[in-house]
Amino acid sequence: MKKFDVCVIGGGPAGYAAAMRAIDFGKSVALIEKDKLGGAGIHQGALWSKTWWEISREARMINVHGNALNVGSTEFSYEKVKGEVAQAVDQRVNLLTHHMQNINLGLGGDLFEYIHGTGRVTSKNTVEVSGNGQDQCLEAQYIILATGSVPRKLPHLPIDEEIVFTSDGLSNLTHFPKSIVIVGAGVIGCEFATIFSNFGHTKVHLIDKGDRILPFEDEDVVKVIEKNLEAKGVLIHRNSKLIEMRVEEEEVVYILEYTDGNKESFRVEKGLISIGRVPQYDKLLDDSLGVEIDDRGIKDDLTQTSVSNIYAVGDITADISLVNVGELEGRYAVERIFGKPEQPLIYKNISTIMFLDPEVAGVGMNEIQAKQAGLQYKMVSLNYETISRATAMRNTQGFIKVLVTNDDEMNILGMRVVGEHASSAIQAVALLISQDNSIKELAELIHPHPSIIEGIQECGRILMGKPLFKPRVLRNAIRCQVWDGNEYQDLVE
Ligand SMILES: Cc1cc2nc3c(=O)[nH]c(=O)nc-3n(C[C@H](O)[C@H](O)[C@H](O)COP(=O)(O)OP(=O)(O)OC[C@H]3O[C@@H](n4cnc5c(N)ncnc54)[C@H](O)[C@@H]3O)c2cc1C
Ligand SMILES: NC(=O)c1ccc[n+]([C@@H]2O[C@H](COP(=O)([O-])OP(=O)(O)OC[C@H]3O[C@@H](n4cnc5c(N)ncnc54)[C@H](O)[C@@H]3O)[C@@H](O)[C@H]2O)c1
C-alpha cells in the first residue's frame, strides 16, 4: 500500500491548492480526481462561463456599435464561439497538467502523485481509488476532502441535459436556442441571461422564487442589471410562481401562477435550471468513520471535520461557493495541519465579481447583510458620471457604494461597484476590511488617473466631509446617508 503524508480527494481549485501547499512543506501528497482536472473552476464552471461571457460582451459591442462602424447586424456562429471556449478550457488544463507533471523536478524526491480515479475514504487513514482500471488503496496520515458541489435539482423540474439543462450539461447545446427559460435568477442564472442576451439570438425568460432577480443583492444594484437585461429583450417574470414545467414535443412548456391567482402558460425551446449547488459527498465516506454531516453538508470547524485528521475544503463545506474561497480553504487546511496558518481563516473580506451587464464587484457586506446583522452604518453612493475614466469609456452607467461603521473610525464594512472595470476597484478595500481599517486610508492615498478606483477615494473624501464634488450640488449623483437601524438620514444637508 502506497503511503502519503496527505491524500487530497478532488482536483478542483480547492484540492489543487491544498496539494500544492503541501509540497511547500516538503510533504508527500496524492491528488485524486475522478473526472477532469480543474473541476468546476475550469469545466462547466468559472473559466468556461467567463470565456462565454467575455466573448458575448464583444458580440454585444459589435452589435451596439455596428451602425457607427458600418458593420450592420452580425450573426455569431455558435460552433466557433464554443470552439473558442473549448480552447480556453484546454489552455488552462494544459497549464495545470504541465505544472503537475513537472512538479517533482528539483524536489529531490517524488513528493507529488496525481491519480485518476474515484476516491473513497474507507478508514481514518485509508483511501480506496477505483474506476481507472487499477483499483488501489492508499494510506495517508491526513485526508483532505475537496470533492466540490453539483447543481441542485428538484423532482418537478424535468432536467435531461438535452432540452432542460443545468450548467453541468449546458455544453451539450449545439446552437443558440431561439428561446430559453432560466429558472433561478441567482448568479449563474443572471450570468447566462446576460450571455445569451448579449449574443442577441435568444429570447431569455427569467424566473426566481424570490420577488426579484438576485434576491440576495441590494435593490439599487439589481435595478441597473434588470434595466439592462430588459433593454436586451429579457422577459423577467415578476409576481409569479412556477407551478409546472414539462417537456412537450421537444420543447419546454411551463406554467406560472401570478399573485392575483391567474395562470399563464409559456413555450420555449430550452430550459436552464440554476437554483443553487449542493455539496458532493455521495459514497465518499465509509459510515464507520462517523464524520458529522448536517443538512447543509459536511460539518467543519475551520476546515477540520469531526474526525481530527480529515479536513474538508471548498464547495463541499457548503458555505461560500467560489474559486478563491476554495483555494483559501485548501491552503489554510494544509497550513493548519503542518504548521501555523500565516493568516486566520476569515471570510469577511471575500471579494466576488458577478459577470453581468455591467459587471458587479462586491467585497464584504451589502446593505441587506448589514441590516440583517442589526448594524448601524454610514453609506455613500457615487455615480460613475463623476468619474472621469467612465466618461472616457463613454459609459457612465453605474455606481460605487461603500458602507462604513457609524462612528468616527469609519471602518469599511463592505462595498459594491456596479459598472465597467468594477472588479479593478476591489483589492484595496478587501485589504482594509481584513485589517479592520478605515476608508480614511484611501482618501489620502494618491490614485492613478484616470481610473475607476478614484471613485472609491472620492467616497472616502465625501464621508470625511472634504470631497472634490459636493453632494449638496450633485444630489442626483451622490448619496451620503446613515442607516440608524430604522431609517436613512442624510449626512449632508
Ligand atoms: C457555471 C458556474 C460559474 C462559476 N463562476 C465562478 C466565478 O466566476 N468565480 C468564482 O469564484 N467561482 C465561480 N463558480 C464557483 C466555482 O466554480 C466553485 O466554487 C469551485 O470550483 C469550487 O471548487 P472545489 O475545488 O471545491 O470543487 P470543484 O471545482 O467542484 O471540484 C471538485 C472536484 O472533485 C472531483 N471529485 C468529486 N468526487 C470525487 C471523488 N469521490 N474522487 C475523486 N474526485 C472527485 C470532481 O470531479 C471535481 O473535479 C462557478 C460555478 C459554476 C457552476
Ligand atoms: N461570478 C461568480 O463568482 C459565480 C458565478 C456563478 C456561480 N457562482 C457560485 O455558484 C453558486 C451557485 O450558483 P447559482 O446561481 O446556482 O446559485 P445562487 O444561490 O446564486 O442562486 C440561486 C437562485 O435560485 C433561486 N431559487 C432557488 N430555488 C428555486 C426554485 N425552486 N425556483 C425558482 N428559483 C429558485 C434562489 O432564490 C436564487 O436566486 C453561487 O452561489 C456562487 O457562489 C459564482
Description of the molecule:
- With 493 residues, the protein is an alpha/beta fold.
- It has 3 domains: 2-46 and 83-150 and 278-338, FAD/NAD(P)-binding domain; 164-275, FAD/NAD(P)-binding domain, CATH 3.50.50; 358-490, Enolase-like, domain 1 (2-Layer Sandwich).
- It contains 12 helices and 26 strands.
- It starts with a strand and ends with a strand.
Can you describe this structure in just a few lines?
28% of the residues lie in helices and 27% in strands. It has 493 residues and is α/β, with parallel strands linked by helices.
Low-confidence sequence ranges: none
In the CATH scheme, the class of the largest domain would be: Alpha Beta
**How many H/I helices?**
12
Bound molecules: flavin-adenine dinucleotide, nicotinamide-adenine-dinucleotide
Main sheet makeup: 7 strands, mixed
The third-level CATH topology of the largest domain is FAD/NAD(P)-binding domain
Please compute the radius of gyration using only Cα atoms.
24 Å
Strand content: 25-35%
The chain-level mean pLDDT equals: 95
State the share of residues found in helices, binned by percent: 25-40%
Distance between the termini: 74 Å
What is the domain total for the residues?
3
Give the tally of β-strands.
26
Based on the structure given, which CATH architecture of the largest domain is correct?
3-Layer(bba) Sandwich
* Assembly state (oligomeric): single chain
Categorize the overall geometry: globular
- Structural class, by secondary structure, is alpha/beta
Pfam family, one: Pyr_redox_dim
Active site: 449 (proton acceptor)
GO molecular function, one term: flavin adenine dinucleotide binding
Binding site for FAD: 50, 119, 147-149, 315
